[in-house]
Write a structure and sequence with these properties.
By secondary structure, this protein is an alpha+beta fold. It is about 25% helix and about 40% strand. The protein is built from five helices and ten strands, in the order H-E-E-H-E-E-E-E-E-H-E-E-H-H-E. The chain has helices at about 5-25, 50-65, 165-180, 210-220, 220-230; strands spanning about 35-40, 45-50, 65-80, 85-100, 105-120, 125-135, 155-160, 185-195, 200-205, 235-245. Strands 2-1-6-5-4-3 form a six-stranded mixed sheet, with helices on one face. A four-stranded antiparallel sheet has the order 8-9-7-10, with helices on one face. The radius of gyration is 20 Å and the shape is globular.
Length: about 260
């Protein structure tokens, strides 16, 4: 087994490999960055679940926006390794030079990559990435959809997979966490339940704001839960984000639910 310092260096190298893959248009190299089944949330409803899908997304962006050259930089890495799983965050800057029929231009974007990784036979691979954009200079104006990640209220829903023998342990850990955080502001709903399929856990959480979710993730008790999740044989996740624009009672004919305002 590699040393802790070697694991940290290898994980940082994965984030750097991602930058080279994009800037040199070698999108097939993303298979050396992401697990075959992954979850990548780039905001504005851009959710990808494989290295090929991520490469296809960036290829389309390059073509439709006339990107001639790009340069992705990552720095200020923070990495926590726990056996064969790890979490990492780093800051990024992306520079794009565009050439279109309307002329040339430059766009600069900065933000953060938040990654969960798993050790594989081929090295460390990202199984979950969340991209948060903090600033943007030049380029097209952000679309209305780009505001989805900062909506006043939103839902995270989907599922993840653990070893079947450990699923009950995970659900027990979730109940303990929910009880410990019952007075935490900003959590409007918090539900993890067993699915009919073995080893699958269904997720439904509703949040008042982005800041509430970030505060939740930084809580030491949540970090401890994530370690327990890793030890339970966590493999795949498919969790999506849904921005809530309008909320009304669910008036369904013939069913006596939510009949009030």
């Amino acid at each position: 087994m590699a040393s802790h310092s070697q694991d940290v260096a290898d994980i940082i190298a994965v984030t750097v490999r991602y930058c080279w893959a994009l800037d040199e248009r070698r999108f097939e190299d993303l298979e050396q960055v992401f697990a075959p089944t992954c979850h990548a949330d780039y905001g504005a409803d851009h959710i990808m679940t494989s290295p090929q899908e991520i490469g296809g997304f960036f290829g389309k962006v390059v073509d439709t926006r006339g990107v001639d050259r790009s340069q992705h930089l990552v720095a200020n890495h923070e990495v926590e390794v726990d056996g064969d799983t790890a979490v990492s965050r780093c800051q990024y800057q992306s520079h794009y030079s565009t050439l279109t029929t309307h002329g040339s231009g430059v766009e600069d974007v900065g933000g953060m990559y938040i990654d969960s990784l798993r050790r594989t036979e081929d090295g460390w691979r990202i199984v979950n990435r969340v991209v948060r954009t903090h600033w943007r200079l030049g380029g097209p104006d952000p679309s209305e959809a780009s505001a989805a990640q900062s909506a006043a209220s939103f839902v995270l829903a989907g599922s993840f997979v653990v070893d079947t023998a450990h699923r009950d342990e995970v659900l027990t850990a979730v109940r303990e966490l929910r009880e410990a955080l019952k007075d935490e502001a900003g959590i409007l709903d918090f539900s993890f339940t067993a699915d009919e399929a073995p080893g699958v856990v269904r997720v439904f959480t509703r949040w008042r704001s982005e800041n509430d979710l970030r505060r939740h993730v930084a809580d030491p008790r949540v970090k401890e839960f994530r370690k327990r999740l890793g030890k339970a044989g966590f493999t795949d996740a498919n969790v999506r984000r849904f921005a809530i624009r309008v909320e009304t009672p669910a008036l369904i004919p013939g069913l006596p639910i939510n009949t009030g305002a």
